[in-house]
Amino acid sequence: MRFSSKTVGLASAVVTVLIWSGFIVIARASASRGLLPMDIALARILGASAVLLPWAWWLLRPARQAGEQVGSLWGLSPLPLRQTVQTGLLGGFLYAILAYTGFFYAPASHASVLMPGSLPLWTTLLAWLFLREKVAAARAVGLGFIVLGDVLVGGASLLMAFDGGEVWKGDLLFMVAALCWASYSVLVRSQGFDAVRATMAITAFAFVCFVPLFALLVALQVLPTQLHQAPWSEILFQAVFQGVGSVVISGITFTQMLRHYGAVRSTMITALVPGLSALGAVWFLGEPMHWNLLAGLALVTSGILFGVRQAKKPVVAPTSPPTGGQA
Fold this sequence. Notes:
The chain has helices spanning about 5-30, 35-65, 80-100, 110-130, 135-160, 165-190, 195-220, 230-270, 270-285, 290-310. It is mostly helical. The chain starts with a helix and ends in a 17-residue tail after the last helix.
């Protein structure tokens, strides 16, 4: 049975938004279920690797049989070694660790504002700095809204730090995680990498570098872990949702959404993520929604919509943004 292009585009948009919104809520909920940030990152990498690494090896098989020197990391990455390391560090290794650690300090409602909101801000600044892309006046106004929204949320937690609060640590980690993903997005855009191949590359780098390092540090009792105490159902769930869902499925559906709706309309659709994930945090996690969070959420969402609708050449990553992220 073949579906129409409209049906595929709509279904892809729905799946993408639901996975990205669910990523924030589930990652925060996971912080209270026993697993540590590194444990969740490991499950994410293993889940994504189970699908993407065999796919990458099969993708490069014809070229290898023809005697061509392609890819790197023993055929697991379709990109050259240098590009694999660059994309893997920014879009996989650092992003995952920073984001998951942030959820152990700050609520999901903060992540709903700061992670999706910071992405267009950092991406525009990096594209202006390294790609020499001009920032239109309308986009600058939209970015101003985003900055105000981030200040309302992050500034309040920073003030509470004087009373011993640690929420600001999570907020800072969310902002830096978004910066890492924005850097990855600009790098992929400047090099013209294919979205699927870039996702395979960062997964291969994470598998080859992070997994052995994690095992070594745990064996030396340098890195704490709760994997031995967590039920297999929890570990399997994290591998399936964080790895297969957030990395593989959302990466494919986002690409399909881009093909059908285009970059501008796709970014406007993903502007639903902050609001939906914030509502999910209130509904499923019982988090309070204070006035500054509501105002910050409204400003960030308005900034994304305003900047994208008015911009002629929006800066949009060719792969999933940090709400869904990559491995």
